Fold:
Amino acid sequence: MAMLYASQAEVGKKYLTPKGLPVEALSVSGSGVLLKAIWTGNQLHVLPTYLLQPFAPEKLSREWRKISMATKAKTKKESKAIVTKVEEVDGKKYLSREYKGKEYKVTVRNAEDKKGFEYAGKLYRSLTDVARTITGQKIINGPKFFGLRQKAA
Structure:
């Protein structure tokens, strides 16, 4: 692919550095060009004579391909994040979570005579029991289902 001088870069377009780092041109002036690394967000100012090549995913260096795949995987994982609302109304705590397009609300009971979790008018001993009722799955972790426990890093 043809190389071009940084001074010929167009603002907003993506390019690759000689080492295969994907960058975006933020500004072009007589004194140089301001570039932003696409995945890290770091900015660098280069001379007008700095060489760039037009962006092409197949030209990414091996290291940047790995970063790209890791970023995509992380984004995909984050989009599946469990969103649980914890509310307190009139001294009562509620957990609510959406599952398969339906919202489920659980009341946390701490009274001496009624400890546990109330869901659909029934008192459950644990969040796991509630999660099993909602999902129909035998093996499930209730606190994890309600987003109260995350995987260890």
Remarks:
- Residues 62-79 form the longest helix (18 residues).
- The chain has a mean pLDDT of 81.
